[in-house]
From TrEMBL:
Protein known as: Dessication-associated protein
Segments crossing the lipid bilayer: 20-38
Keyword annotations from UniProtKB, A to Z: Membrane, Transmembrane, Transmembrane helix
Matches recorded under PROSITE patterns: PROKAR_LIPOPROTEIN (PS51257)
Keyword check for Transmembrane helix: yes
Domain of life: Bacteria
C-alpha cells in the first residue's frame, strides 16, 4: 500500500474541493457530469459525509507523540543519535549530565532488553508515520525530557518537599526509568483509542492505527507489570512505588478527563489493565491527551512540548478542530 500517495491524494482532494467551493453550485454539478438543477435526486436521504477529512492531522498528532516516546526510550538505552536527525534538528532537552549516548545503568538485564525493544518499536512508528504522510509529515518538535519530568513530579506530589521532587530524573536509575515510562505509556494507548472514531479511512488508516494501538498496549502492560512487581519498594519520595504510580495516575486524571487508574486495586490486588466498568480500555480525546503532555488544561505549549506541537501549516486548522473534539 502506497500510504504516501494515499495522503497526498487526500490533501489534493481537499484543495480541489476548496477551489470548487468558489464556483456556483450548478457549474460544479455540470463540470462533474452530474444532473442539472431540477433533476430528481436518486438518493433523497443520503448518509451525511464528513465535512473534513482529519486523517492527516490525526496521524501528525500521533507522530508528535511518537517523537516524544521514541526520544525517551532511545535516550534511555544510549541510542539517542538514531532520532537526532529524524524530522529535523529541533532540540531534545535532557537532564544535566546525561546526553543519551550511553545507556542508563539498568540493574535488571530483562528490563534493559525490554527498554531496547520498546525504543526500536517507537522509532519504527515514527518512520512509518513519516513515510505514510510524506511531505505532509510534521517536523520533530522541541522535546523536554529533563525539567518537564521534574515539573510532573512536583505537580503529582504537591505535599512532598520540592527538593526531593527536583531529583526526579527518569534516566538516573532503573526504577525512575519505569516511572518515567509509566507517564507516557497509558497516554499513548488512550490517544489512539480516542482518535479512532474520527478517522475517515476505516480500511487503511484505521487498520494501521489499530495495529499501533496494540503495540502501545503491549508496552503499557509491560511497564505496569514491572511496576506492580515492585509496588512495595520504597522510593526517595518517602512512599512506596504503588503510591508514586497512584500520584502520577491522579495527575493525569485531573487534566485528562478522569480516565486513569493506578496499578493496585483497593483490595491490594493487581490492576495491570486499566479499564472502565465494561472492561474496555479508556479513550481520551486529543484535547485530553494534550492536557497531559502539556501538563496543564487547555494549554498549547509547555510540559514535554515546551514550544508546542510541530504541525504542517496547512493542517493547523485541522489540529484546532481535533483539539475541539
Amino acid at each position: 500500500m502506497d500510504y504516501q500517495k494515499l495522503f497526498k491524494n487526500k490533501l489534493d482532494r481537499r484543495r480541489l474541493l476548496g477551489n470548487l467551493g468558489m464556483m456556483g453550485a450548478g457549474a460544479v454539478i455540470t463540470a462533474c457530469g452530474g444532473a442539472a438543477v431540477g433533476q430528481p435526486n436518486p438518493n433523497p436521504n443520503p448518509e451525511p459525509e464528513p465535512t473534513t477529512d482529519l486523517d492527516p492531522a490525526i496521524l501528525n498528532f500521533a507522530l508528535n507523540l511518537e517523537y516524544l516516546e521514541a526520544a525517551f526510550y532511545l535516550a534511555a538505552v544510549g541510542r539517542i543519535d538514531e532520532i537526532n536527525t529524524v524530522g529535523g534538528d529541533a532540540e531534545i532537552i535532557l537532564p544535566e549530565g546525561f546526553d543519551g549516548s550511553t545507556s542508563i545503568e539498568f540493574t535488571t538485564p530483562e528490563i534493559a532488553s525490554y527498554a531496547d525493544e520498546i525504543a526500536s518499536d517507537e522509532l519504527a512508528h515514527v518512520n512509518f508515520l513519516r513515510t505514510a504522510l510524506g511531505a505532509s509529515a510534521a517536523d520533530r518538535p522541541v522535546l523536554d525530557l529533563g525539567p518537564a519530568f521534574v515539573a510532573a513530579a512536583t505537580a503529582a506530589f504537591p505535599d512532598v518537599d520540592p527538593a526531593l521532587t527536583a531529583q526526579f530524573n527518569p534516566f538516573a536509575n532503573e526504577l525512575f526509568f519505569l516511572h518515567g515510562a509509566f507517564i507516557f505509556e497509558d497516554v499513548g494507548v488512550t490517544a489512539y483509542s480516542g482518535a479512532a472514531p474520527a478517522i475517515t479511512d476505516k480500511t487503511t488508516v484505521l487498520a494501521k492505527a489499530a495495529g499501533i494501538l496494540a503495540v502501545e498496549s503491549y508496552h503499557a502492560g509491560e511497564i505496569r507489570t514491572l511496576l506492580y512487581a515492585q509496588r512495595e519498594t520504597q522510593t526517595p519520595f518517602g512512599v512506596p512505588v504503588a503510591d508514586v504510580v497512584a500520584g502520577i495516575s491522579a495527575l493525569r486524571a485531573s487534566v485528562g478527563g478522569g480516565k486513569d487508574e493506578g496499578i493496585v486495586n483497593e483490595d491490594g490486588s493487581a490492576n495491570i489493565v486499566p479499564t472502565d466498568d465494561d472492561g474496555i480500555a479508556f479513550a481520551r480525546t486529543p484535547r485530553e491527551v494534550a492536557n497531559i503532555v502539556f501538563l496543564a488544561a487547555d494549554a498549547t505549549t509547555g510540559g514535554f512540548f515546551p514550544e508546542g506541537l510541530a504541525f504542517p501549516a496547512d493542517l493547523v486548522d485541522d489540529l484546532n478542530t481535533l483539539l475541539g473534539l
